[in-house]
Amino acid sequence: MLSGASWTTIITNITCFWIWALAYIAAAYTTTSYKWAFFAFGSFTWLILALSTLNESREAAQRLGIARDYRIPSVRVNRIWPPYPVAFALTDGANVLGVTGGFIFVGILDILMMPL
Predict the structure, then answer these.
(1) Does the keyword Transport feature in the UniProt annotation (predicted)?
(2) Mind listing the pLDDT tens digit for each residue in 75-91?
(3) How far lies 29's CA from each of 36, 73, 86, 93, 106, in Å?
(4) Terminus-to-terminus CA distance in the chain, angstroms?
(5) Cβ–Cβ contacts within 10 Å for residue 57, how many?
(6) C-alpha to C-alpha distances, 56 to 22, 79, 87, 97, nearest whole angstrom
(7) Contact 90, 102 (CB under 8 A)
(8) CA triplet 86, 28, 10: central angle to 5 degrees?
(9) 67 to each of 14, 62, 70, 80, 96, how far by Cα in Å?
(10) Angle at 98 between CA 96 and CA 99, to 5 degrees
């Protein structure tokens, strides 16, 4: 909101975030191979969200003269987000990591995300 982004962009980003999260939750509860469709849909939504935060919101911040202040945290967040789909694919998707390994993986990502 402080970046000067329009309400449409803010609502779209919030909606994309929820679709991303809910698609991964649906995939986690699906026992058939359809889970990968939920995963793909959620990952596509994440891509839309990442591009929106890097482009549309940055343009709004640039109009206010705070592009540098916006760019630093947005780039940091978008560098931390890509391991989340990897964590999901390794834990709930393919069951390569067990429960403990998955908690540790996602916990480290959450700790890295906390200062933001």
Answers:
(1) no
(2) 888 888 888 888 888 88
(3) 12, 33, 17, 10, 18
(4) 15
(5) 20
(6) 24, 17, 27, 36
(7) yes
(8) 70
(9) 21, 4, 5, 20, 41
(10) 140
Give which of 53, 41, 40 is closest to 81, Cα–Cα. 53
Measured CA to CA, the distance from residue 63 to residue 70 in angstroms comes to 12
Distance from C-alpha of 3 to C-alpha of 30, rounded to nearest angstrom = 38
pLDDT at residue 46 greater than cutoff 90:
yes
- Cβ–Cβ contacts within 10 Å for residue 6, how many? 11
Instruction: Give the integer Cα–Cα distance in Å for 104 and 56.
Output: 33
Rounded to whole angstroms, the Cα distance separating 58 from 80 reads 18
pLDDT > 60? residue 1: no
Amino acid letter, residue 75: V
- 89 CB contacts (<8 Å, ≥6 apart)? 39
